[in-house]
Design brief:
heterodimer, A: alpha/beta, Rossmann fold, 4-stranded antiparallel beta sheet, 10 helices, 35% helix, globular, B: MetI-like fold
């Protein structure tokens, strides 16, 4: 049985008996998983490759829906509703729940247009408003100083770390309530990684964050809660400092001490 | 002979044979181009661009009718073929993907790309020329369109699939609807490649003769009515070059030269775009 601690603060999301099956797969990749996600906190998901942590993350904004045949069961509650129902408006959901990918995904356009992209999708055309919000997002993503003189330049000219911060700026510019990070630093060097980690911690006050990481030190450094997943199940969810120091499940202990992985 | 010596000998023989083959191939190409340039430049003059066809023995014959006819035939073909090809390629890459329907379309267009173009000409003869009762520029453009579509469709499909799926996901993750993802992100990422496909498709049909013989036929004078038979550089070239009159043969060289330079530059531009895209 899984050990899942009670969370006594407001919740951003609540996963209930969730199952996910990929198209053409016989067995579900995530099995009967229940998990609360605390609001305005950072929750890290760790576990060996193939444990389902990325699959779970990609369920929160239903990005799996882009590929036909995938199947959800159970519930994910967000703002008092189950977002897994067919009538869920995915465009609205994805504005409220943003995502940062493993590899930087700068669009083939200027730095300014990249950050303005999400706002323009929402119909914001006012130039002054766009300029103000683009600047603020870039400042919040700690990249404003580096790009302020070349906003019109192609975003693909930036370094990997800069592109990743640009993607974070683009995601927070539309003021989401939840941000999903899918191994955001695995393609970056240690210095860029440190920058992104600092940024994630700073964002916590305004947005709830879920971060999937292969790097246990990273989970320990940035997160408030950590969930350990194994073979499609949540084995343990606890406060990060407790989970890493005094894990309650044997599997968790073996994983964080490097006995398997 | 030791084992090593034998190996070096075989290596040298193979290298010699392949170099020789390459030199022969390139040699023929240069030979063709130089004969074309020498005879073509010799035949080139302002009259060619200002005058229409004239009877043999008259020094005033030009190619204006064929140049304009060619331009109209190819432009109309591009007008129909480019949007159809690009949209069909978009369907394959963005909507159909690996579905049975799209795999079938891909197979069929591969077959159509290698189909002899005279067959396409005969087909258009049967469905357009025969019911209308006469040759026409429209029939010619339709034949060229049919040849152009599979080329543009396949390059568009390939180029769109080269755009990383994470880029699409990132746009969807910001709440973009599918048509905006395709137009604003995917097309933008693949525009050099799509343009290359379009240029190569246009270049390919610009050199076609066989399908035009059956469809737009020919006219020795300027005609800009697409409902009537229409001159093209290729068919004019064929007629003039095979005629017994020296001045017509000269015009044939000029037509060949102009057409080759046009197609050559389209191809070079197309490949330059592709190169730029790959280096990125």
């Amino acid at each position: 049985m899984a050990t899942i601690i009670e969370i006594n603060e407001p919740k951003a999301l609540e996963v209930k008996n969730f199952e996910f099956t990929y198209a053409k797969a016989d067995a579900p990749s995530i099995k009967k998983l229940s998990m609360p996600i605390a609001r305005h906190n950072i929750t890290a998901l760790i576990g060996p490759s193939g444990c389902g942590k990325t699959t779970l993350l990609r369920s929160f904004n239903r990005i799996h829906d882009l590929y036909p045949g995938n199947k959800y069961d159970g519930e994910i509650i967000f703002k008092d509703r189950n977002i897994l129902t067919p009538k869920e408006d995915l465009i609205k959901l994805r504005i409220q729940i943003g995502m940062i990918f493993q590899k930087p995904t700068a669009f083939p356009m200027s730095i300014f247009d990249n950050v303005a992209y999400g706002m323009r999708l929402q119909g914001i055309k006012n130039k002054t408003e766009l300029q103000g919000r683009v600047e603020k997002a870039l400042q919040d993503a700690a990249i404003w100083k580096e790009v302020k003189d070349r906003l019109k330049h192609d975003a693909n000219g930036l370094s990997g770390g800069q592109q990743q911060r640009l993607c974070i700026a683009r995601a927070i510019a539309v003021e989401p309530e939840v941000l999903l990070f899918d191994e955001p630093t695995s393609a970056l060097d240690p210095i860029s990684t440190g920058g992104i980690e600092e940024l994630v911690v700073e964002l916590r006050d305004r947005v709830s964050i879920i971060i999937v990481t292969h790097n246990m030190q990273q989970a320990a450094r940035v997160s408030d809660y950590t969930g350990f997943m194994y073979l499609g199940e949540l084995i343990e969810l606890g406060r990060t400092e407790e989970l890493f120091v005094t894990p309650r499940e044997r599997l968790t202990e073996e994983y964080i001490t490097g006995k398997f992985g | 002979m030791t084992h090593t010596q034998k190996r070096i000998l075989i290596n040298n023989i193979v290298m010699f044979l392949s170099t020789l083959s390459a030199v022969i191939g390139i040699g023929f190409l240069l030979w063709i181009l130089s004969v074309l340039v020498i005879n073509g430049l010799d035949a080139l003059s302002m009259i060619i661009f200002t005058n229409e066809g004239a009877p043999p023995g008259n020094d005033n014959g030009g190619l204006k009718h064929a140049l304009i006819g060619q331009l109209m035939l190819v432009s109309y073909a591009a007008l129909f073929g480019v949007p159809l090809g690009v949209l069909a390629g978009t369907y394959l890459s963005e909507y159909g993907l690996k579905s049975k329907l799209s795999e079938t379309i891909r197979d069929i267009s591969d077959i159509m790309m290698s189909a002899p173009s005279i067959v396409i000409g005969a087909f258009v003869y049967a469905i357009v020329v025969s019911p209308m009762g006469h040759f026409s520029g429209w029939a010619g453009s339709i034949a060229l369109t049919i040849i152009m579509i599979p080329i543009i469709l396949r390059t568009t499909d390939d180029m769109l699939q080269l755009v990383p799926s994470t880029l699409r996901e990132a746009a969807f993750a910001l709440g973009a609807p599918k048509y905006k993802v395709i137009i604003q992100i995917v097309y933008r990422g693949a525009k050099a490649g799509i343009l290359t496909g379009v240029l190569l498709g246009v270049a390919r049909v610009a050199g076609e003769t066989a399908p035009l013989l059956f469809t737009s036929f020919n006219d020795n004078f300027l005609n800009m009515d697409m409902n009537q038979p229409m001159a093209s550089l290729t068919v004019t070239m064929y007629n003039y070059a095979t005629s017994p009159y020296e001045d017509w043969q000269k015009l044939g060289w000029a037509a060949a030269f102009i057409l080759s330079m046009f197609i050559l530059s389209l191809n070079i531009f197309g490949r330059l775009f592709l190169l730029k895209k790959k280096n990125k």
